């Protein structure tokens, strides 16, 4: 089978296409024939050696897939051959993967299996960042950076469903139109307007209860100025490659909270996961959550696909198709 490996830390060119044996499931595992490989910014950070506690080269790229169960190992219950599943794994950019059965979830009925590849990482990240950690509630105001990406488009919809006022930033007028259609009340084209000044205008200089940012650097610093007293900023990434530092005096003076977020810490929180999946099926069922997969690349074009994301050309989810 074809599998994409990271040969060493570096740019997209370090991704190599390799022929490797189809894996076999051990006890408690499932073998999945992959329909779509979800691509996440974390994949790029891992490739560059910037991901906290990330794998060391050489390693298989990717960790999120959707597909069909091909076979199950001893002791697996609840999943069987032919089931459509989505979930987490190692070596995700592959034609087949094996994973612990408890890391796989059934694909919701009526959802295209390619769209399902966007749910495990981005939906759960969006939900737990906004609800479980961010404690966003109806009537509050949230600022979402990079709101037109795969994660951002999900966050916009969840925040709207909660009943929050949603402010979102993106790089083009076309992306602003997209997120407005998803329920973003105040889309901001940061290439044309200063988002800090816009947030001040929109909130009457009060600021936001919650800010979620993924960029770092100057964007982080300006985002800090968008938080109202007793508000919170959650950081999900460092797309700028410029980790930010926090002024502790500013935190003290304004009772601000800055939180990092890593999804895997929430996967074992039974109550939080129950809430996340309950709301997922409710929102998919009533049409208030759309999973947007805008870009499909053949598996062998993983290099081009990651560069596409790095160049900020993507809208919604990017997937690889074996």
Q: Can you lay out the helices and strands and say which pair or pack?
A:
Blueprint (H helix, E strand, L loop, with lengths): L1 E5 L8 E5 L9 E11 L1 H8 L10 E2 L3 E9 L11 E5 L7 E5 L3 E3 L6 H4 L2 H15 L7 E4 L5 H13 L2 E6 L2 H9 L4 E4 L5 H9 L4 E6 L3 H8 L2 E9 L12 H7 L2 E4 L9 H17 L6 E6 L3 H9 L6 E5 L1
Helix pairs in contact: 3-4, 3-9
Offer a quick outline of the entry.
With 322 residues, this protein is of the alpha/beta class. The chain contains 10 helices and 16 strands.
What is the CATH superfamily of the largest domain?
A: Medium-chain alcohol dehydrogenases, catalytic domain
Any idea of the CATH class of the largest domain?
Alpha Beta
Order of helices and strands: EEEHEEEEEHHEHEHEHEHEHEHEHE
CATH architecture of the largest domain: Alpha-Beta Complex
What is the typical, i.e. mean, pLDDT?
95
What's the number of structural domains? Answer: 2
- Helical amount among residues, as a percent range? 25-40%
Shape: globular
Low-confidence stretches: none
Please name the CATH topology of the largest domain.
Quinone Oxidoreductase, Chain A, domain 1
Terminus-to-terminus distance: 10 Å
How many helices? Answer: 10
Output the structural class.
alpha/beta
Q: How does the major sheet shape up?
A: 7 strands, mixed
Rg, Å, rounded: 20 Å
Strand content: 25-35%
Number of strands: 16
Tell me what you see in this structure.
The protein is of the alpha/beta class and 322 residues long. It has two domains: 147 residues, Quinone Oxidoreductase, Chain A, domain 1; 143 residues, NAD(P)-binding Rossmann-like Domain (Rossmann fold). Helix content is 31%, strand content 28%. The chain contains ten helices and 16 strands. α7 links the parallel β12 and β13.
């Amino acid at each position: 089978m074809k599998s994409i490996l990271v040969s060493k830390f570096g740019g997209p060119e370090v991704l190599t296409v390799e022929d490797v044996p189809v894996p076999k499931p051990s006890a408690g595992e499932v073998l999945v024939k992959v329909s779509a490989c979800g691509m996440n910014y974390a994949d790029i950070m891992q490739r560059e050696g910037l991901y906290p506690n990330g794998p060391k080269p050489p390693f298989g790229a990717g960790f999120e897939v959707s597909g069909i169960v091909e076979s199950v190992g001893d002791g697996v219950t609840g999943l069987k051959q032919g089931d459509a599943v989505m979930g987490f794994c190692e070596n995700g950019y592959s034609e087949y993967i094996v994973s612990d059965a408890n890391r796989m979830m059934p694909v919701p009925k009526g959802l295209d299996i390619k769209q399902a590849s966007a749910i495990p990482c981005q939906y759960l990240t969006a939900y737990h960042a906004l609800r479980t950690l961010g404690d966003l509630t109806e009537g509050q105001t949230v600022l979402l950076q990079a709101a037109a990406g795969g994660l951002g488009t999900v966050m916009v919809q969840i925040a709207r469903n909660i009943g929050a006022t949603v402010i979102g930033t993106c790089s083009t007028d076309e992306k602003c139109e997209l997120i407005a259609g998803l329920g973003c009340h105040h889309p901001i084209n940061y290439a044309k307007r200063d988002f800090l000044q816009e947030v001040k205008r929109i909130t009457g200089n009060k600021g936001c209860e919650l800010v979620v940012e993924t960029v770092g650097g100057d964007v982080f610093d300006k985002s800090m100025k968008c938080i109202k007293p007793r508000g919170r900023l959650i950081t999900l990434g460092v797309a700028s490659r410029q980790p930010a530092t926090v002024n502790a005096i500013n935190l003290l003076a304004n009772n601000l909270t800055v939180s990092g977020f890593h999804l895997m810490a929430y996967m074992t929180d039974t109550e939080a996961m129950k809430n996340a999946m309950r709301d997922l099926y409710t929102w998919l069922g009533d049409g208030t959550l759309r999973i947007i997969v805008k870009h499909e690349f053949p598996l062998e074009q993983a290099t081009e696909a990651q560069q596409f994301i790095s160049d900020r050309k993507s809208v919604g989810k990017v997937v690889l198709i074996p």
